[in-house]
């Protein structure tokens, strides 16, 4: 017992010494200024878990748009706040800022594999391949749009099935958007009643919650301490295991019935064909691990991002019924009766488009941005950032930058319209980030958001069992992701063409 106590004391002293040595390293690298670092705690006093983003914004008021913090004693991060700083780094010095940083909550599973977590040559090859393969499979083309239109039709039918009763639309929206990515990845769509599919959606939701929760934020600071201890990360690992096991089963099925003469039916096929082509290359990045980790991340991103954004847009329309009315009037005026909304209609539906963009801006789905690292020693605004410096580009602060968006906390779709009522997009509208790591699913997400939103509003009038004043727009959880609050929705058929219906 005594020996254990002595070892614990020695370990504590060692950690203390190591963390005391840290502040000096900031001066060596000519890093941006920041708050004093406490031994073992880093900047925990300024950055309380659960409000990491708010804490970073508070620090930027004191230290300016570029500053340094310590998440825990050793994780040193340079933070970029506001459109100008993020644009100058990720946009103007794109190559230098193109490395992927750490997500302690997920690193144990992905371990530098797959397109999201990879760096260097591995990332370059996986990114190029994934982009081209998804494009060949119809992403950004008419075929891809048809898949989205067919899925939204099923979603509309499922909404109809509620017959005016209040329901939480989260699961159905996540399933519908997931089906689109499942069709690209596995060539499959799943019934909304399929229990295995529902378990996958719940696992993706649990992963999102786990990495964004206050505990997830604490883990980003103290993973070295928390990893060996029991805690919520065992639950997160279970969710990730469910996603990975589902992906593995799909890959195994594809391996069983792959037609080696092609063409690829989906992304898994395309990857397997590429693996076969490169099997003599001992340095190939087209390995089973990279296949599984690329597909698992795409499944997660395709399930949790667009569904949550559409959900938030619907919530805003419940909160602002006049805006809902204006969207429906535009749809009635511009779309011929019985015609499903398509991307080609976008130019004729500037108000609908503006509402959707304003919802995306206000939500700021990824407020902290995803972590980057510098790929070489980088001179930025007079500071010298050593190779490997972690960088958080705060996308929430770009989307809510008061120098670009007047009264940024207000819901005002008009900011996306010019004086003639045409759609305009400010340069600071960057929910997908920018530069070399810009979201790989941006085109798909934009197409899904528009077609889903327009089709739902074309089919239904939306109501809430609560009065608009009682609806909160505050995220249920705000961390790596802003997760919109849950709410009850009621739908009834929209009276879009009253004149023709009464004839
Ligand atoms: C509203 C929807 C979405 C938003 C707001 C969004 C946002 C983002 C952001 C902020 C990043 C980090 C970029 C950076 O590192 O600076 C990212 C990366 C990524 N996203 Fe999305 N995303 C969305 C939907 C999707 C979808 C539908 C997919 C794919 C099916 C996807 C796949 C990816 C991938 C693979 C990356 C990593 C890219 C790389 O590291 O090279 N995203 N996304």
UniProtKB/TrEMBL annotation:
GO terms for biological process: epoxygenase P450 pathway; prostaglandin metabolic process; retinoic acid metabolic process; xenobiotic metabolic process. Residues 1-27 form the signal peptide. It is an enzyme of class 1 (oxidoreductase). Its cofactor is heme. InterPro entries: Cyt_P450, Cyt_P450_E_grp-I, Cyt_P450_E_grp-I_CYP2A-like, Cyt_P450_sf, Cytochrome_P450_fam2. Its EC number is 1.14.14.1. GO terms for molecular function: arachidonate epoxygenase activity; heme binding; hydro-lyase activity; iron ion binding; oxidoreductase activity, acting on paired donors, with incorporation or reduction of molecular oxygen, reduced flavin or flavoprotein as one donor, and incorporation of one atom of oxygen; thromboxane-A synthase activity. SUPFAM superfamilies: Cytochrome P450. It is a peripheral membrane protein. It is found in: Endoplasmic reticulum membrane; Microsome membrane. Transmembrane segments: none annotated. Gene3D superfamilies: Cytochrome P450 (1.10.630.10). Cytochromes P450 are a group of heme-thiolate monooxygenases. This is Cytochrome P450. It comes from Octodon degus.
